[in-house]
Specification:
By secondary structure, the protein is α/β, with parallel strands linked by helices. The protein has helices spanning 12-23, 42-52, 88-93, 97-100, and strands at 4-9, 30-35, 67-71, 76-81, 105-110, 124-131, 134-143. The protein has a seven-stranded mixed beta sheet with strand order 1-7-6-2-5-4-3, with helices on one face. The protein is globular, with a radius of gyration of 14 Å. The relative contact order is 0.27. The model has no long low-confidence stretch (mean pLDDT 93).
């Protein structure tokens, strides 16, 4: 692993607030590749990130439609969910290549381990883990970005 850090967030609101603050510091183009078990906070993080980009829409998990696009104040947010994909071929079959080099946009990919072979080497990688003693707490291991 390259440069990384871990941050423990105590609640849903803390996760969303951290993501919102992160969004204000990220520049386009950027890919954020997220991993973590079901319910570990990936969509919650994305909701906060979208808020930090000035997106007013209700951001949900695009599990069944695979991709949602939201226009922020200055940038487009591509929210990709690879949960239902088997591999990189499935990703490219949905036009995934445009999300890997998002001109004028930021792409957040949930379940990025499903397409690990094609995630850009300069992507920000975030691994989500539950904190056992805190039901809403999450530990995020972030690689490729410093606050």
């Amino acid at each position: 692993m390259n440069d990384y850090f871990t941050i423990n967030l105590e609640s849903v609101s803390a996760t969303q607030n951290f993501a919102s603050e992160m969004a204000a510091k990220i520049q386009s183009p950027c890919v954020i590749a997220m991993t973590g078990e079901l319910g570990s906070g990936k969509t919650t993080f994305t909701q906060g990130f979208a808020r930090g980009m000035g997106i007013k829409d209700n951001v949900g998990s695009p599990t069944f439609k695979l991709v949602s696009e939201y226009q922020g104040e200055h940038l487009l947010l591509n929210h990709v969910d690879c949960y239902r994909l088997e591999n990189e071929k499935d990703f490219f079959n949905i036009g995934g290549e445009k999300y890997l080099e998002p001109d004028g946009a930021i792409t957040i990919i949930e379940w990025s381990e499903k397409i690990a072979k094609v995630v850009p080497h300069d992507a920000i990688k975030i691994e989500f883990k539950r904190i056992p003693e805190k039901p809403d707490g999450r530990s995020l291991v972030i690689e490729g970005w410093t606050p």
